[in-house]
Amino acid sequence: MPPSGKPTLRTIAEMTGLAVTTISRALNNAPELSQETRERVQKIAAEIGYLPDRAALRLKTGRTHVISLILDPHDEILGFGQSMVNGLTAALRGTAYHLVITPNFVGDSPLDPIRHIMRNRMADGIIFSRTEPQDPRVKLCLDQNFPFVSHGRTELPVAHPYVDYDNYAFAYAAARRLISKGRRKLTIILPPTKFTFGNHLRAGFLAAVKEGGVAHEIDDGLTLDNAAEDIRTRVIARLAKPGAPDGFICSGDAAALAVMAGITDAGKSIGQDIDVVAKQTSGIFSLVRPKVDAIYEDTALAGEQMGKLLLRRIAGEPAEDLQWLDKPRVEWR
């Protein structure tokens, strides 16, 4: 049984038989310690309710022991923020670090929250999403040697930590699925063209339709960032015209719901007149009827991986060793 009173580093040291300095390094995820030792110490710390004295830690180490997640106000993924936070808190559980949310408001420069964090030394590391090929946030963090992990890749020539989903593979598999169902003209709802993952989606989609010998169209005015009602009305309008697509790929589940509503409101039958393949990130989507084909992206797992990689980056591991790409697991009904 743990001793009574407020748990300290010495409490954990007495329970484990390890030195206080070893306990401190384990709680900070020091890479020189074995994974088994880190996990053992972090598990005991969580069980006895150990909480570090953050003011003392900052004075001693110069670190805040804070991770900042910068959230953009986009909703193409249902429950994106909640899933990401769940994964990050799982990665930080038992360590000296805690998570704070920093919003990136519409209309503001994406650099503003990062500069604010750096200038005021508000965090030891940053996580952000929706990367661009030449992302200015990545460049700033690299220039300042500030630890970060991006949710998404860039096209920069310098290696940097990232966690990403293979959107090329998703779009390719989705298009091949529609072609296998006999669909002859496909379309895909993409994010705005400035984002890297949109380029990956487009490339995977175009490779599949070329290989399958089917027609396609992409409406660059219809993106994941459109309001759901706008997506619905645009789908209705397009289906009323000749040569409309009979296969839709939706790279976000919120957009998929809007597309399905538009198809139904246009008087078409999903599964008969038109088929849909969606990227699913929420358990809610599996309850939608009629059911459509979906490929799952685990954003909670992505959050957990980003938390783990960021702790390793803060500990000094090289960026080229801190890159993780999630491959779609395709299991059609």
Word description of this protein:
It is elongated and about 75 Å long. Helix 1 packs across helix 2 (20-27), helix 2 (20-27) packs across helix 3 and helix 5 (80-92) packs across helix 12 (299-314). The model has no long low-confidence stretch (mean pLDDT 91). With 333 residues, it is α/β, with parallel strands linked by helices. The strands form two sheets. The chain has a six-stranded parallel sheet with strand order 2-1-3-4-5-11, with helices on both faces. It has a five-stranded parallel sheet with strand order 7-6-8-9-10, sandwiched between helices. The chain has helices at 9-16, 20-27, 35-48, 54-61, 80-92, 111-120, 136-143, 167-180, 196-212, 228-239, 253-265, 299-314; strands at 66-71, 98-103, 125-129, 148-151, 162-165, 185-189, 215-217, 247-250, 275-280, 293-296, 323-326. Helix 7 (136-143) links the parallel strand 3 and strand 4.
- Rounded to an integer in angstroms, the radius of gyration calculated over CA atoms is 23 Å
Derived from helix and strand composition plus strand pairing, the structural class reads alpha/beta
As residue ranges, the low-confidence spans are: none
Instruction: Give, in spatial order, the strands making up the sheet with the most strands.
Output: 2-1-3-4-5-11
Order of helices and strands: HHHHEHEHEHEEHEHEHEHEEHE
Q: How many helical elements?
A: 12
The N- to C-terminal Cα distance equals 50 Å
Mean pLDDT: 91
